[in-house]
Specification:
It comes from Actinocatenispora sera. It holds the Pfam family Acyl-CoA_dh_1. Belongs to the acyl-CoA dehydrogenase family. This is Acyl-CoA dehydrogenase. This protein is α+β, with helices and mostly antiparallel strands. It contains ten helices and ten strands. A hairpin with a 5-residue loop joins strand 4 and strand 5. The protein is globular.
Length: 382
């Protein structure tokens, strides 16, 4: 299996790296402190075509693939995870369900603006009473003539309340199966629909420049045609989306882990203690060497999972492995980078402080570390 990038892939990586360094880095610290969504940065990302990377040109996309998206996510997350998760959620959770399961009419209506980055979309799966147990959906949608009437609430939904959010796709119980189990379907709810309320933004530990809200639906009425995919297949569809998304989160995690290496190497060459640059001390050298080891190995894991996905092979377990190892590597690297920076690592003016705050959610979002271990164990027949 070839892990070297093609010329086109390498050029994309360098382009996004330059963008992250020259455009994102100078402004994101202030946005983070103010907990402000970086609209100008997102607009530039749209102009670069990043939101359209894995989609066909006929829907306004760039005609690339999912691995191209992952390369972009890694480079963005080397500098800032709020920007990276805005892209990841906008593509993997917002646009991808429409592309994978939507009707041709839905694709042509909604995808072009999403691919150009002129609009964002979210996916409402998690609810206040359930995280990993996402199948225990309480939100209901009932047919009333030619409409779905939705009642319920969703939690921790990314890209759900920005000025450019076009819609949120939500899972809801639409009936009961013959065996009594709930029938869960996915339904597209445009922003501004009567009965659809976006709650105040959360006060978060990290990802402070990204958009996250609780959503409520009270007799929210949308057309029957807003059903996304087959009725009763909403949960199964989203499990497919999550498998793909875990590769993307792994790539984002690798970016954060690598960013910690970059910042630590730079600081180790600048900071002096006891008459020497701290990078001259073996204790610091070994910490950074181990950080590089984790980032490199995690990168190989997500490269492998992405290659299997694009080859049409089963990749569920490899995606779980990549997400688990990369996210835990990001947390460890962030902790070590903060330690290397000492007191300055606790100051928000240094990027590693942001990385330390951003890292933990990577072990939780889009499937906890425990869920990944469960998936891996099941693949082993346990």
């Amino acid at each position: 299996m070839e892990f070297r990038l093609s010329e086109e892939q390498a050029a994309l990586r360098e382009s996004v790296r330059d963008f992250a360094t020259e455009v994102v880095a100078p402004v994101i610290g202030d946005c983070y402190e103010r907990e402000e969504f970086p609209y100008p940065v997102v607009k530039r990302m749209g102009e670069m075509g990043l939101f359209g990377l894995p989609f066909p040109e006929e829907y306004g996309g760039m005609g690339g693939d999912y691995f191209a998206l992952c390369l972009a996510l890694e480079e963005l997350a080397r500098v800032d995870s709020s920007v990276a998760i805005t892209l990841e959620a906008g593509v993997s959770l917002g646009a991808m369900p429409i592309y994978r399961f939507g009707t041709e009419e839905q694709k042509r209506r909604w995808l072009p603006r999403l691919c150009r980055g002129e609009a964002l979309a979210g996916f409402g799966l998690t609810e206040p009473g359930g995280g990993s147990d996402a199948g225990a959906t309480r939100t209901r949608a009932e047919l009333d003539g030619d409409s779905w009437v939705i009642n319920g609430s969703k939690s921790f939904i990314t890209n759900s309340g920005t000025d450019i959010t076009d819609f949120v796709t939500v899972t809801a119980v639409t009936g009961r199966r013959a065996d009594g189990r709930p029938e869960i379907s996915s339904i597209l709810v445009p922003s501004g629909t009567n009965g659809f309320t976006v709650g105040p933004k959360y006060s978060k530990v990290g990802w402070c420049a990204s958009d996250t809200h609780e959503l409520s639906f009270v007799d929210c009425r949308v057309p029957v045609a807003n059903l996304v995919g087959e009725r009763g297949r909403g949960y199964a569809q989203f499990l497919r989306i999550l498998d793909e998304g875990r590769i993307a989160i792994a790539a984002l995690s690798v970016g954060l882990a690598q960013g910690c290496v970059d910042e630590s190497v730079k600081y180790a060459k600048q900071r002096s203690a006891f008459g020497h640059e701290i990078g001259a001390y073996q204790a610091i050298q070994f910490k950074i060497a181990d950080m590089k080891l984790r980032a490199h190995t995690a990168r190989l894991a997500y490269y492998d999972a992405a290659a299997r996905m694009l080859a049409g092979e089963d990749f569920k377990t490899e995606a779980a492995i990549a997400k688990l190892y990369a996210s835990e590597s990001a947390v460890t690297n962030a902790r070590e980078a903060t330690q290397i920076h000492g007191g300055y690592g606790f100051m928000n003016e240094f990027p590693v402080a942001r990385m330390w705050r951003d890292a933990k959610i990577l072990e939780i979002g889009e499937g906890t570390s425990e869920v990944q271990r469960l998936l891996i164990a099941r693949d082993l027949g346990l």
